[in-house]
User: Which sequence fits this backbone?
């Protein structure tokens, strides 16, 4: 037996020993693989997503977005934005009854997708749950007839409560409901980054309605006033944004208010 | 074609077929597993009332075996034929047998393309169907806006498009306008469609966002003129070329569409081999290989030329003869033909 054979056998023995001492972690292996693939694949996946947005259907764009998110599972902002865009995408001019049925189906898919995203959200899981609590209400508002279809599951409020209870359990704090409205600038900014002004407006309208959840009335009124200023600006009205720019909570939106 | 060229082409065909078959099968297996494991999560079609499909998002899984075959075929040809690269052993013998300007390279390329066609036909037809490509392809015709302008707004609530003269009936209209900010509080624009002066019974399409997609499906009917009518709302909508697409009712055979796709997918390999042949007049094998592989990556992955539109067309069920894939093939074919002419001239000069 040559010295080369001996060193080869030693190397194999060391590898097996290493496997016993520190068993390979499948999650780690997956993370390493995606880390290696990401730089090569992402530019093309984004291009494909753009193509789907320009010439495909909403379902195709969401499927392309899922391919991106498979490589970036911890990007919870994007998980929320893509799911929200899919859930609120009409796609076909049909009778209101059929539109509501389709919207209800899309909502179920979006919530199921976000549910799986919870596993990889890490410390952003609470924000993800807050976003999931918003989704049913917004879809129901956009598509008349969806709220009635959600009555089997207790209605939009009950579904939101379910997610908020989970958020409160994870965060160990009972302010998840109250805090939801403050999530709007980040959510709205993500939509504006994708050029989705109409949906960003919807999110801000929702946040203004939900500012009533804030227990401190003075804070709630001031917050609603700031959001209203942003909303009016996005609608094309001339508004003084001095107070908005001075409010650090509005920082995510500032790049889109010029 | 001479007997020598015929036998050279046949030799290249047989060798490429043999070398590319196994990698192609393995890549197809891998792609099938990938498509199953990473299938788009759009709900269970069995339980959903309105099942969503996104076969157009599966192009990557069709691309994997196609590109594997194209790369294997190109590499095989470059290693097979001594005159393909500069100063290869046996090149002088081959030149004596093949007196033509390309010294057999043209016949070898033809054989390689035939092998690729034979291997990619089942992929574009059967495998694509397995991925969810529709059994019938529909003709999608992008309409050009009228000369008077393409803006639909409260000040100009009607926009007319002339439909191309065709005997086929229309079954659907797809709209994807650009939206401008409204002057006042946003009220989504409701757009109805009139075909030949008669309004459609389907509900109006509602737009409040730029790039928003709407499909209006209706009972098939012939039409020569399409009018968009703004019923209500204040979001100005701009319909540039391609923002209005008329979908014809007459379904074309999906298998024929797949065969067309396999033919069009020869264009990237032809261009890659043509430029390799040009480079091979003065460069050694490593350079020739680099040229071929770079071009195949540019076509297949980076989206240059017709490769991507062809895959999208097949999987979405768009009839390729009426799609952008044809127009995207033209410049590539021209570039490939010019490279072949350049290779002929360069090799002729080298011989003298």
Assistant:
């Amino acid at each position: 037996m040559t010295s080369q054979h001996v060193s080869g056998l030693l190397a194999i023995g060391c590898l097996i020993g290493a496997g016993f001492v520190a068993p390979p972690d499948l999650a780690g292996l997956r993370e390493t693989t995606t880390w290696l693939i990401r730089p090569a694949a992402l530019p093309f996946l984004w291009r494909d997503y753009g193509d789907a947005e320009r010439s495909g259907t909403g379902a195709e764009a969401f499927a392309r977005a899922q391919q991106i998110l498979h490589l970036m599972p911890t990007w919870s902002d994007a998980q929320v934005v893509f799911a929200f865009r899919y859930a609120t995408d009409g796609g076909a001019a049909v009778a209101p009854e059929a539109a509501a049925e389709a919207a209800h189906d899309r909502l179920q898919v979006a919530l199921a997708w976000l549910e799986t995203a919870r596993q990889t959200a890490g410390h952003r899981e609470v924000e993800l749950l807050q976003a999931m609590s918003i989704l049913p209400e917004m879809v129901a508002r956009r598509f008349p007839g969806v709220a009635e279809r959600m009555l089997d599951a207790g209605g939009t409020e009950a579904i939101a409560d379910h997610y908020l209870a989970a958020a409160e359990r994870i965060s160990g704090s009972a302010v998840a409901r109250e805090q939801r409205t403050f999530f709007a600038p980040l959510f709205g900014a993500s939509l504006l980054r994708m050029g989705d002004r109409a949906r960003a407006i919807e999110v801000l309208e929702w946040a203004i309605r939900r500012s009533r959840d804030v227990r401190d009335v003075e804070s709630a009124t001031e917050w609603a006033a700031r959001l209203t200023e942003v909303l009016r600006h996005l609608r094309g009205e001339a508004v003084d944004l001095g107070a908005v720019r001075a409010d650090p909570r509005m920082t995510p939106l500032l790049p889109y208010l010029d | 074609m001479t007997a020598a060229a015929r036998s050279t082409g046949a030799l290249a065909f047989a060798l490429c077929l043999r070398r590319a078959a196994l990698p192609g099968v393995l890549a197809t297996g891998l792609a099938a597993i990938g498509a199953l494991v990473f299938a788009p999560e759009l709900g269970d079609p069995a339980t959903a009332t309105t099942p969503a499909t996104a076969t157009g998002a599966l192009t990557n899984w069709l691309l994997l075996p196609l590109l594997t075959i194209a790369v294997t075929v190109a590499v095989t040809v470059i290693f097979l034929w001594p005159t393909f690269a500069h100063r290869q052993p046996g090149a002088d013998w081959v030149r004596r047998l093949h007196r033509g300007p390309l010294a057999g390279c043209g016949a070898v390329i033809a054989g390689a393309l035939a092998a690729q066609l034979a291997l990619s036909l089942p992929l574009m037809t059967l495998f694509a169907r397995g991925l969810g490509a529709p059994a019938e392809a529909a003709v999608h015709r992008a309409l050009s806006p009228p000369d008077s302008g393409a803006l639909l707004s409260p000040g100009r609530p009607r926009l007319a498009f002339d439909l191309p003269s065709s005997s086929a009936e229309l079954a659907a209209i797809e709209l994807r306008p650009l939206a401008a900010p409204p002057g006042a509080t946003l009220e989504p624009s409701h757009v109805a469609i009139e075909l030949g002066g008669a309004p459609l019974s389907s509900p109006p399409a509602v737009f409040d966002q730029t790039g928003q997609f709407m499909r209006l499906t209706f009972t098939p009917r012939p039409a020569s003129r399409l009018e968009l009518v703004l019923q209500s709302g204040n979001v100005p909508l701009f319909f540039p070329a391609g923002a209005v697409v008329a979908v014809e009712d007459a379904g074309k055979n999906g298998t024929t569409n797949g065969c067309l796709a396999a033919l069009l997918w020869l264009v990237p390999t032809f261009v890659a081999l043509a430029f390799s042949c040009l480079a091979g007049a003065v460069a050694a094998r490593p350079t020739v290989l680099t040229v071929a592989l770079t071009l195949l990556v540019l076509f297949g992955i980076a989206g240059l030329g017709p490769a991507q539109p062809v895959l999208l067309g097949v999987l979405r069920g768009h009839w390729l003869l009426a799609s952008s894939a044809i127009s995207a093939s033209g410049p590539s074919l021209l570039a490939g033909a010019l490279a072949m002419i350049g290779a002929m001239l360069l090799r002729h000069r080298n011989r003298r």
